[in-house]
Design goal:
globular, 25% helix, alpha+beta, 386 residues, 2 domains, 8 helices, 9-stranded antiparallel β-sheet
Length: 386
Amino acid sequence: MFKSAVVTSEDHFTLGLGRRLGEELINKIGQTPDACWIFCAPKQGLQQVLDGIYEVVGTEKMVGCTTDGEISSIGLTTGSIVLGGITSDQFQFEIAVVEGLGSKSETAGRQLAEAFGKDVGYIQLFSDGLTGNGCALLRGMATILGPELPIAGGTAGDDGKFKQTWQFAGNRVLTDAAVAVGFSGDVKLGTGIRSGWTPIGLAKKVTRASGNILYELNGEPALNVFERFLGHHADQLPAIGVEYPLGLLSTAGEDGDEDYYLLRATMTVDRKEGSISFAGEIPEGAMVSLTCGDTDSILAASEKAAELALADLGDHEPAMIFCYSCMARKIVLGRLTQQEINRIRAVIGTSVPIIGFYTYGEYCRMRCDGPNVLHNETVTLSLLGV
C-alpha cells in the first residue's frame, strides 16, 4: 500500500492556513501521512503555518526548507507553500537534524549519517544554501554510510535574495542547518539528472583552487579567462555566469557521463586577485571548460532526466516524483519555466503527484550506480515506485 498527495496555497502564512493544508492533505491521501515535505517562500508567518500543519498531521517526520520557487502538481508557484505527504507499508521514515552547518559541514554530514539506523536505504537532504558546504556535507555522510547509498535533495533558497535561508524539522524553523529524512524497507527508487549545457572552447586545467574558489586556469587568473571569453558582457559577472557555468570535464573519479558534466555556477568575483567563487567545490587539477545552453536544450534535458529516472525505476510504477531543480534554470527559462515541469510530468505521467523546489544547489547521484554529488544548474528527479 502506497498513497501520496500534494497540496498548494498562495495565501498568507498563518496558523489557520497550516491547519487547512494539513486537513486537505489528509483528505486527499485518505489518512494521516507517515511523513511530510514542506517547501515554501521565505515569507512572514513561517512558524505559524508550520505549527498549523504539525497540529493537524500529527507527525514529527516533517522536513523541508525555503526556496527560490515551489514545485507541485499544479506546476511552478512563487510566494507559496507546497505540502506533500506519503503513507506506505513498504517502507519506514526517520529524520535527522544538525545545526551550525557553516562551521563544520563535513562533521555535520557524519553527525547526520550517524543519526540514521543501519537499515536506511535512501536519504533526502535539505541544507542551508548560503552557509554550508554541500560537497563537504556529502563527504561526511559518505564516511559513515558509504558512497553508494543514494542521497537526493537540494540546498535551501530565499527567493534570490542570498541573505538567509530556513530549514524545517517537525515544526522547528532552523537556519544554518541541515535536515534529512531517511527511508528504510522496500524502497523502489529511480533517479535521473541532466542540465542541457554543453562544453565550448578548449578545455583548461585548474592550476590553482581552494574549496569553491578558483584562482587560476592554465596558470592564468581565472577572471582573465572568463573576461576574454565573455567580451563586453564581462562587466556583468557574476550574474552573467549563470548562462555560462563551468563544466568539470574530469574530476577525482567523477568523469562526465555521456552528455552530462558536473556544473559549477558563479557566485562572486574578486577583481583584485582575479578569482571567482562558485556554488560548489572546484578540484585542483581538474580539466574544465565553459559551457553554454539555451531554452531548447535545457527543456530537452528535463525530458531526458525524466526518461533516465523512469528507466532506473525499471518495471515498477512511479508513485511520487521529487523534483529539485536549480534556480539558474529558472532564470534562463524565465516565462518558460512552467514547461520544465510540464515536460517532466508528460514523460512520467500527469497523474503522479510531484513536489519539489528551485534550489541553490542539487543533491543527487551522478548515475544510477554513481556517487552522490552537489550539482549546479541541473534538474534532478527521484521517483518512488510501487
